[in-house]
Design goal:
five-stranded antiparallel sheet, four-stranded antiparallel sheet, alpha+beta, Dna Ligase, domain 1, about 300 residues
């Protein structure tokens, strides 16, 4: 390969460490395939460093704010450098959970009931009756997520430990199972079920080996499995995503199967770590990690 790929990773977000793991895995795979690879740990010198290395393509392995919300995408658009994953608008919409939920609802997709509230109101006990979920408006990897069950003070929310702003998203808690679907281009690759050994599929569980069981393909009712793929692809198209995305769903089968699927959110830059779900789903489709990474590079583009 003669193409020069800048792998942008790290960055200042709370997901810095997992981004570094993703980026290093991508860097290794591309190097072994023969690409000329320049790793870049993103900071405020990022524009100058990209201009200095003059890549043909940027592989955006950043997670969280700045790297996943349209900011770095906008920079790469200005520089005219094709990049992996979704563009500016789709990235910004997906990262803003309330905005994405509104578009999903307009597309006919079922999401948990919820609304944006002031943190002070939530701390005062206003809002939905338990069980419910509290989320930051624009974080990923379950960062800042609190599940409040009936008669439960586990992970009690306190202002001193909430660094995510004055507004929060409060959603009805959906019982059942954790289902994730990978979309690649215009095709839903498959659905996987995650069964966390702890309370829920939180940040630690996602990135610590042995904290959750993975079942691929997800062992749910066949009709619901097909529906999960349709929901993920529709969500991908609704936001205008490109490249690879991952849809997070809850499957309420408490009353038995077939159950009801709820779309929680869509991740436009899924992890590429050894425990990440998109590579696992791709592998079940016969696609090795290196092939997946190469596809993402070869399908990189700019919006404009």
């Amino acid at each position: 390969m003669s193409r020069h790929v800048a792998v942008i990773m790290g960055g200042p977000s709370v997901e810095r460490e997992v981004s570094l793991v993703s980026g290093r895995a991508v860097e290794k795979a591309l190097s072994e395939l023969g690409y000329n690879v320049t790793p870049i740990d993103a900071d405020r010198t990022l524009p100058a460093r990209i201009l200095d290395c003059k890549p043909d393509v940027a592989f955006n392995a950043l997670h969280g704010r700045l790297g996943e919300d349209g900011c770095v995408q906008g920079l790469l658009e200005v520089l005219g450098i094709p990049y992996t994953h979704s563009g500016v608008l789709a990235s910004a919409l997906a990262m803003n959970k309330p905005a994405a939920k509104k578009l999903f609802a307009e597309a006919g997709l079922t999401c948990p009931e919820g609304r944006v509230m002031k943190l002070e109101a939530v701390l005062a006990g206003e809002g939905l009756k338990p069980p419910y979920v509290i989320k930051p408006l624009n974080e990923g990897s379950s960062v800042g997520v609190h599940i409040i069950l009936n008669g439960d003070n586990h992970q009690r929310l306190e202002r001193e430990t909430w660094p995510f702003g004055d507004d929060v998203l409060v959603e009805k808690y959906i019982p059942g199972r954790e289902i994730q679907v990978a979309v690649m281009g215009e095709r839903a690759l498959g659905a996987i079920e995650i069964r966390p050994r702890g309370r829920f599929y939180d940040y630690e569980t996602k990135y610590t080996d042995g904290k959750a069981e993975h079942f691929m393909p997800a062992p749910i009712h066949p009709r619901c499995y097909a529906e999960a793929l349709d929901i993920a692809l529709c969500a991908h198209r609704t936001l205008g995503c490109r490249g690879v995305s991952r849809a997070d769903l809850r499957y309420d089968d408490v009353a038995g199967e077939p159950g009801t699927l709820y779309l929680l959110e869509i991740n436009t830059q899924p992890g590429m770590t050894p425990l990440s779900l998109v590579p696992e789903i791709a592998a079940d489709n016969g696609m090795e990690f290196a092939d997946l990474v190469a596809w993402m590079v070869e399908n990189a583009s700019c919006d404009n």
